[in-house]
Amino acid sequence: MKIRTLFKLAAVGSLLAAGSVMAQDASRPQEPGRPMLCPHPTGETLVASGSSLFAGDVNATVTSNMTGLASPVLNKHHPYTFRWKSPACCKIMGATLTITLKAISAGTSNTSSDAGNDMIGIYHNGAGLPGVGGYIFPNSPFPAGTTVTRTFNLTPAQIATLNLDGDNRLTFNTQDDTMVTSAKLVLNRCCIK
Predict the structure, then answer these.
(1) Which of 54, 73, 100, 138 registers the highest number of CB atoms within 10 A of its CB?
(2) How many Å apart are CA 49 and CA 166, to the nearest integer?
(3) Can you give the pTM of this predicted structure?
(4) Cα(84)–Cα(44) distance, integer angstroms
């Protein structure tokens, strides 16, 4: 009888010791270099519609010579600002901007004055985001009506530069012989609640 009791006590003691080791392990800080898991990941997809522009993100040349996204008018800028309300206790961990564009005119080359030299970029407080954007159509020549989809996956550093968590906006602009047929922004957040 005493031997059984000793075995039971030994088994309970082993479980308690293992539980305390596991509890200590769970409370240990995250190891450097290992990705931290998000307790509550959320996503939000915003689709461009109508017109929306935070004028402070682009320069006066854009605001004085712009039109709506799907406008087939030549020699006009097509800026758009996505806006959102961030949930409390959340941080944007990733963002993907996808824009589909259509050439209003043919494109001869990246140095011609037609759709071939049109550019796209993401802007914040009057400046372009470094490393993002460039020629809409990288291959010339092409006929009018050519479509292309450009996707920009923003890094954590770019998200910080744009202050997406604080300003709650993202602005892109295209010029000027190419129209935007659709645009969407996907925000991936990590929330603690």
Answers:
(1) 54
(2) 23
(3) 0.79
(4) 9
Sequential DSSP letters for 87-106: PTTEEEEEEEEEEEEEESS-
DSSP states along 14-29: HHHHHHHHHHHHHHSP
Query: Do the Cβ atoms of 140 and 107 come closer than 8 Å?
Result: yes
| C-alpha–C-alpha distance, residues 150 and 105, integer Å | 18
Question: CB of 79 within 8 A of CB of 58?
Answer: yes
Is 50 exceeded by the pLDDT of residue 10? no
Q: What pLDDT is recorded for position 126?
A: 92
| List of residues 6+ apart from 64 with CB closer than 8 A | none
DSSP for residue 60: H
pLDDT tens digits along 23-60: 434 444 556 666 678 999 999 999 999 889 999 999 99
The CATH code for residues 39-191 is: 2.60.120
